[in-house]
């Protein structure tokens, strides 16, 4: 019998997502466009939410859903103005974080394609 390996397992599990999201939020913390979108003084709670979401999405533990229910990404982001500039800044920080992981090309492409798609769906202030 062969056992399928999830993307989560293939990229190294929780530690990989911890590194990815931490590096991403280091960029956000210093970004004058994005930082105001995080009202909490400490970015730790936002970092944990994104990490848990990505872990669950990619086949890891379902902690995000147990704590927060269905992701409802668009609904959760409605209070924030997300236009092209915010989209591009978010992807810029995420690109740096993804590249630092040095994943094998097919895995990096899968992750990056998902992040681009997700960022595109959250734009709520076109033009």
TrEMBL record:
Keywords: Heme, Iron, Metal-binding, Transport
Cofactor (UniProt): heme
UniProt-listed PROSITE patterns: GLOBIN_FAM_2
Domain of life: Bacteria
Pfam families (UniProt xref): Bac_globin (PF01152)
Recorded family membership: Belongs to the truncated hemoglobin family. Group II subfamily.
Protein name, per record: Globin
Organism of derivation: Actinoallomurus liliacearum
UniProt lineage: Bacteria, Bacillati, Actinomycetota, Actinomycetes, Streptosporangiales
């Amino acid at each position: 019998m062969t056992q399928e390996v999830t993307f989560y397992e293939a990229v190294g599990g929780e530690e990989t997502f911890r590194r990815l999201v931490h590096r991403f939020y280091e960029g956000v913390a210093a970004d004058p466009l994005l930082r105001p979108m995080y009202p909490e003084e400490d970015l730790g709670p936002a970092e944990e939410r994104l990490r848990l979401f990505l872990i669950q999405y990619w086949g890891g533990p379902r902690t995000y859903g147990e704590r927060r229910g269905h992701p409802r990404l668009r609904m959760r982001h409605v209070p924030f103005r997300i236009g092209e500039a915010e989209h591009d800044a978010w992807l810029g920080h995420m690109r740096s974080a993804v590249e630092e992981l040095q994943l094998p090309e097919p895995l990096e492409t899968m992750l990056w394609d998902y992040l681009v798609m997700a960022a595109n769906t959250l734009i709520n202030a076109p033009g």
